[in-house]
């Protein structure tokens, strides 16, 4: 019985000792974990396809700061710095993690590893806790900011058929065309600021605010001087019908003219910026040289024009309205692209491959040729 009590006493003592050892090591583990977590949050592992614009929006830091910290090259698989050094990292601290109090009148003392040795710091020495701002890095290429169309300005009579054959929810058809067209609007020689390609919802969340700053209405087509439209040619009529019309004109018999699509063809669904601070805000945020707005996306099936009755194949048209402004809000081009297609093809992927690339190429043709930015030209 006494031996059992002795063992019980030793067991209680060991449990008590283990408990206090664990509590003594907990602050050390917490400090190591905090330090490791802090180190990881200040760095980012570059993934294939990462850009400085994506990382700037993800970590809410300026693009110029990221470039100044890590250089202009962004290699995949490398850790880069994405956070500024905080003030606590810039002030001296002891190895134990405790900082000495700062007094403006008395001398400052810094503890070393040996407690019996102190080093005196001259009094009234200012301790700097400010972070020097990163130098401004001038952009090396011109930039284009792409604003995708508002989902409410998407009109289609084919989404049900496309969704059924593609086996996707019906809303995904709309957003699929939206994201694919936006991804193709990458003009060569420019840096593209695409609000749907950042990999984060922060830019996408700003799109409703952009849409509130815009005003839409039908306007006359304005062709870009960099890609002028070909002149319209008058149709040369001949044959019995022409002779008959001429005889009616001589007799003074008027012919009723029906409205045609051509009379409507000189109009497009244009956009204007109604917010007075729009260009100031986004010029400072992204420094774009041009703004490319996709205003409206339409899919219309013409059931009066049948290509093949046996397969119920009709003409289906894709129409995209767009406007291009420069950084000062001057109109570069305002137009629409119309692509004819077939109605018996309802595969979302194939429709996108066959049509959206052509639409994007036609829109980008209205952009001015890329130039060297003024800041870069001044440096050279």
Automatic annotation (TrEMBL):
Pfam families: LysM
Gene3D superfamilies per the UniProt record, alphabetical: LysM domain
Xref: InterPro entries: LysM, LysM_dom_sf
UniProt domain LysM: residue ranges: 42-86
Identification of the protein by name: LysM domain-containing protein
Organism expressing this protein natively: Adhaeribacter pallidiroseus
């Amino acid at each position: 019985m006494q031996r059992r009590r002795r063992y019980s006493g030793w067991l209680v003592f060991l449990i008590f000792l283990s408990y206090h050892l664990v509590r003594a090591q907990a602050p050390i583990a917490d400090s190591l974990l905090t330090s490791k977590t802090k180190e990881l949050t200040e760095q980012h592992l570059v993934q294939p396809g990462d850009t400085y614009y994506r990382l700037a929006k993800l970590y809410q830091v300026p693009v110029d700061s990221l470039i100044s910290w890590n250089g202009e090259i962004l290699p995949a698989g490398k850790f880069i710095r994405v956070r500024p050094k905080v003030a606590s990292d810039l002030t001296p601290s002891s190895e134990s993690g405790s900082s000495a109090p700062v007094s403006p009148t008395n001398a400052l003392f810094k503890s070393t590893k040996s407690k019996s040795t102190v080093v005196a710091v001259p009094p009234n020495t200012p301790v700097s806790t400010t972070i020097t701002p990163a130098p401004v890095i001038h952009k090396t290429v011109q930039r284009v900011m792409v604003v995708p169309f508002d989902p409410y300005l998407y009109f289609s009579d084919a989404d049900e058929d496309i969704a059924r054959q593609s086996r996707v929810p019906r809303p995904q058809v709309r957003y699929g065309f939206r994201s694919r067209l936006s991804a193709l609007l990458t003009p060569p020689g420019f840096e593209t600021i695409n609000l749907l390609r950042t990999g984060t919802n922060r830019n996408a969340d700003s799109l409703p605010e952009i849409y509130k700053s815009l005003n839409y209405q039908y306007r006359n087509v304005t062709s870009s001087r960099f890609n002028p439209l070909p002149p319209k040619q008058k149709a040369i009529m001949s044959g019995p019908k022409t002779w008959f019309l001429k005889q009616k004109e001589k007799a003074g018999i008027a012919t009723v003219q029906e409205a045609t699509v051509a009379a409507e063809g000189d109009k497009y669904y244009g956009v204007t910026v109604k917010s007075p601070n729009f260009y100031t805000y986004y010029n400072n945020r992204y420094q774009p040289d041009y703004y490319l707005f996709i205003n409206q996306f339409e899919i219309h099936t013409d059931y009066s024009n049948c290509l093949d009755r046996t397969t119920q194949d009709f003409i289906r048209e894709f129409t995209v309205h767009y406007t291009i402004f420069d950084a000062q809000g001057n109109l570069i081009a305002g137009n629409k692209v119309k692509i004819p297609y077939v109605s018996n093809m309802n595969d979302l992927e194939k429709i996108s491959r066959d049509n959206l690339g052509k639409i994007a190429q036609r829109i980008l043709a209205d952009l001015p040729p890329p130039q060297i930015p003024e800041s870069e030209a001044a440096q050279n």
